[in-house]
Amino acid sequence: MLEDTVPLSHYxxxxxxxxxxxxxxxxxxxxxxxxxxxxxxxxxxVNISLISFxxxxxxxxxxxxxxxxxxxxxxxxxxxxAIIISMHRNKPTVNLDEFNLLKW
Amino acid sequence: MxxxxxxxxxxxxxIGSIINGFFGLxxxxxxxxxxxxxxxxxxxxxxxxxFVGFLMLPEGQHAYEQVVWSWFxxxxxxxxFGFQVDPLTLVMMFVVTGVGSIIHVYAVGYMHEEYSFYRxxxxxxxxxxxxxxxxxGNNFLLMFIGWEGxxxxxxxxxxxxxxxxxxxxxxxxxxxxxxVGDFAFxxxxxxxxxxxxxxxxxxxxxxxPEKLIYGxxxxxxxxMLLFVGATGKSAQIxxxxxxxxxxxxxxxxxxxxxxxxxxxAGVYMVVRCNVLFSLSPMTMTVVAFIGGTTAVMAATIGMxxxxxxxxxxxxxxxxxxxxxxxxxxxxxxxxxxxxxxxAFFKACLFLGSGSVIHGIHxxxxxxxxxxxxxxxxxxxxxxxxxTLAIAGIPPLSGFFSKDEVLYHSLIDGNxxxxxxxxxxxxxxxxxxxxxxxxxxxxxxxxxxxxHPHESPKIMTMPLVILAGLAxxxxxxxxxxxxxxxxxxxxxxxxxxxxxxxxxxxxxHMLHEAGQHAPSWTHLLEPKDHNLWIESLLMLFSAAVAIxxxxxxxxxxIKRPDLPExxxxxxxxxxxxxxxxxxDELYDESIxxxxxxxxxxxxxxxxAKGIDGAVNGAAKTIGWFSRHAQTLQxxxxxxxxxxxxxxxxxxxxxxx
Lengths: 104, 655
Description:
The complex is a heterodimer of chains A (about 100) and B (about 650).
Chain A: H1 2-5, H2 8-28, H3 32-56, H4 61-90
Helix pairs in contact in A: 2-3, 3-4
Chain B: H1 8-55, E1 64-74, E2 77-85, H2 87-110, H3 117-136, H4 140-158, H5 165-196, H6 201-211, H7 217-233, H8 242-245, H9 251-260, H10 265-272, H11 274-278, H12 281-304, H13 308-328, H14 332-359, H15 377-391, H16 397-413, H17 415-440, H18 457-472, H19 486-495, H20 499-512, H21 521-524, H22 531-558, H23 562-567, H24 571-577, H25 582-629, H26 636-654
Antiparallel strand pairs in B: 1-2
Helix pairs in contact in B: 1-2, 1-3, 2-3, 2-9, 2-14, 2-18, 3-4, 4-5, 4-9, 5-7, 7-10, 7-12, 9-14, 12-13, 12-17, 13-14, 13-16, 13-17, 14-15, 14-16, 14-18, 14-19, 15-16, 15-17, 15-18, 16-17, 16-22, 17-22
C-alpha cells in the first residue's frame, strides 16, 4: 500500500520543495510567462499536499478541493494570459522590470 | 380672558420686522411704513386690552403669568417661555409701545428720503419686540434674551449709516461696552440659579427673604453683578462712554433706544429685582452713589458740548443717574416715575432736535444754529415745553418726578446724595436752556445757503403728543396729598418689601449658623415723612431750576460774550469739554492693551503655536509618507517579496 511504501512526509517534502521553487521563480525571474508558470507550480504543490493529506486521513474532501484549485487555476490562467497579452500590446516586451505602474 | 392676549404684544412687532426685513424693498416705502407703525399701534392697543384685563383680576391678585411653552429643561432645571404681567410690566409696556408707536410715526417722516427705509424699520420693529420681551419675560433668562436683543438692535441702528466709519466704530463700541455689562448680568443669573435652583422672577423674589441673609455676601455679590449689568445697558459710570457716541445713529433711534426705552432697561431690572437689592444695603449705597455721581458728571459734560444730540445724550446719562439714585435709596416708585416722565420729555427733545437737524439739512453743531424760533414754531414750542419739564419747572412732569427723587434721596438717603441730586438739577436746567437759547434764540448763525423750514406734519404731530404727555405726565404722582400718588399705589404690589420679616429670617439663619446677628432695630424705625420738609424741598428745587435757567439766560442771551470770557484758557473747562479724558483713559488703559494682547496672542499663540502644531503634524506625516512611498515601487515582484517576507515572519512569530 501507499502508506507502507512512501510515507506522508515524503509527499510533504515534495510539495514544499515545489512550493519553494515556485516562490523563488516568482521572485527572481524577469519573464512574465515564467513567473506565471512558477505560480502554477506553487498551486500544484499545494494540490499535492492536499491530496496526500486526504489520502492519509481517509477523507475525500481534499481531492474535491484540489479539483476546485485546478478550476480556479484554469480561470486564473485565462485571465492572467489575457492581462499579459494586453501588457504586451502596450509595451513590446514581457520583461517584468519594464512594468512599474502598480503604484499610486 | 383679555390677559390671554399678552403673548401677542411682542409678536406684532416681530412679524412686522420679518415682513419688512425680507420683503421691504419689494413692497415699497408706504407699505413698509404702514406695517411698521401698524404693528406698533396694534401692540399698543393690545397692551390696553391686557391692562383692562388686568384691572378685572380678582381682588388681591397682582400678577398674571402666561406660559407659552416650556422652553427647555435639563434635570431639575427648566425654563418656560412665559410672560408676566404685573403693575411694573404694564407701566413699561405702555412706555415701550406708546412712546414707541409715536416715534415710529415720526421716523416715517424723518427717514423718508433714505434708500434703506425698510432696513431701518425692520431693525426698529425688531428692537421694539426685543424690548417688550425684556420687560415682559417671567424669568431671568428670557429677560436676558431681550437684553441681548435690544443690544443687538442698538448695534444695528447705531451703525445704520454703515458707510460712515465713525458710525461703525460707535456701533462696535456700544456693543463691546455693553457686552462687559451683559457678562456680569449673566454671571448674576447663574449665581441666582445656583442659590435658588430657579430663575423664575416670582419664585426668586418670593424665596429671597427666606434664603438670603440681610447684608450677606451672597446677596451682595448677586446684586453687584446685576448692577454692573445695569451700568452697561443704562450707561452709568464706568460704562457710560458708549451712549454719547451712539448718537451717530438716526435721530429716531436716539429717541427710542438711547433715551426712552433701552437705556432704562437697567433701571427696570433693578426695580424688578428690588427684593434682592433691598436685602443688600451695601449695594444700595453703591447704586445710589454711582447714580448720583453719574448724574453730576454727565451734566457737567453736557454743559460744554456743542453737538445738539450729544448734549441730549449726556442729559440722558445724567437723568438715568437720577433714576439709579432713586433706586439706591430705595425709592423704586420714584425711579419708575422718573423713567416714565423722562421717556416722554426726552423722546420729545430728541425728536425735536431731529426736526431741527432735518430743517437745516443735517447740521448738528449748535454754533451753526440760532434764531430758529421763527422758522420752526411748532418744534420750538414743543421743545420748550419739554425743556421746562426736564429742568423741573412746576407743574410739568419733570418737576414732580425729579422732586420725588430729591425728596427721597434726602429722607431715605443722606445729605450727600441730596446734594448730588440738587447740583445735577441746577446743571440740567442750565445746559438744557443753553441748548434752547443757542438753537432757537439769538442771532441766526445758520449757513446762508440753507433755508430753515418747519418739518412736515407727520413729524410735528408726534412732537405735540409727546409734549402733551410731558406736560400732564406728572399727574401720575401728585405729591403731598396722601393716597394721590397713583403710580405709587399702582406699583405697591411689586415693590412691597417686608423688611421686618426678612430681618427675622436673617436672624434665624445666622443663629442656626452659630453667629450673632448685628443689631438691626434702627432699620425698622419708621421714617417721619414731614409735609413741611417736602413742601420746602419742592420750593427749593423749583428755585434751583429757575436759577439754572436764569444763568443760561445771562450767559447766552443777555451777555453772549460771557461764556467765551469764562472758559478761555481754563484748564478745568478743557477737562470737562474733553469729557474728563475718560475715553482717552479707557483707550490707553483697556482698549490698547487688549488690542496689543490680542495681536500677541494672534501672532505668537495662534499663528505660531496652534497653526504651528497643526501644520507640524501634517508635515511630519508628509515626511513619513514620502519615505514610505519608496516601498511602493510598482514592481510586482517586490510586492510578492513583501508577501513572502511577511508570511515567513508570521510563521516565525506563531511558532
